[in-house]
Amino acid sequence: MTLKGIDPLLSGALLRALDELGHGELLVVADRNFPAFGNDATVIRIDTGVVEAVRAILTVFPLDTFVPTPIERMTAFEDDPQTNPTQEEVLAVAIEAGGTDLAFRDIPRMSFYDRAAQSRVVVLTRETAPYCDFVLIKGMV
């Protein structure tokens, strides 16, 4: 892509998919192990890790300010507050992009799959760190 001001990781297909999502709709950004093709969502592959993908996406994708936690993460188990360094970096990128104090909504793995099934778009990355699957809730521009 050779547009000025647009992160080169954002393909035309991804930009279109992001644009077509409405306020309150869900976007999944997932690691390479996520079962992305199990639902009716549009799957867009991006050749990078989740941190870089989220950083690029958040240059054009507003997070919802009407919900307390517009970024959700998969956890291994119920009541698992532990984060790995990649998850922490994704949260830091979201805070930097949103200019607000954000926290994750933690969703255990099997419940996360149900939540992700509500999304129309899944961005499938090459991330290898475990449990690096996120839901971003779209806000208003």
The total strand number stands at 6
What's the CATH topology label?
RbsD-like fold
Helix content: 25-40%
Mean pLDDT: 93
Within CATH, the superfamily carries the name: RbsD-like domain
Low-confidence stretches: none
Strand content: 15-25%
CA radius of gyration is 14 Å
Per CATH, the class reads Alpha Beta
Distance between the termini: 23 Å
Largest sheet: 6 strands, mixed
Give the name of the CATH architecture: 3-Layer(aba) Sandwich
Which structural class should the secondary elements be placed in? alpha/beta
Q: Can you tell me the number of structural domains?
A: 1
Along the chain, the helix and strand elements come as HEEHEHEHEE
General shape: globular
Total helical segments: 4
- In which order are the strands of the major sheet placed? 2-5-1-6-3-4
Write the layout of secondary structure elements.
Layout: H1 12-20, E1 26-30, E2 42-45, H2 50-57, E3 71-75, H3 85-98, E4 105-108, H4 109-116, E5 121-124, E6 134-137
Parallel strand pairs: 1-5, 2-5, 3-4
Antiparallel strand pairs: 1-6, 3-6
Outline the structure in words.
The protein has 141 residues and is α/β, with parallel strands linked by helices. It has one domain: RbsD-like fold. 28% of the residues lie in helices and 18% in strands. It contains four helices and six strands; from the N terminus they run αββαβαβαββ.
Produce a short descriptive summary.
With 141 residues, the protein is of the alpha/beta class.
Keywords:
single chain; 4 helices; 18% strand; 141 residues; alpha/beta; RbsD-like fold; globular; six-stranded mixed β-sheet
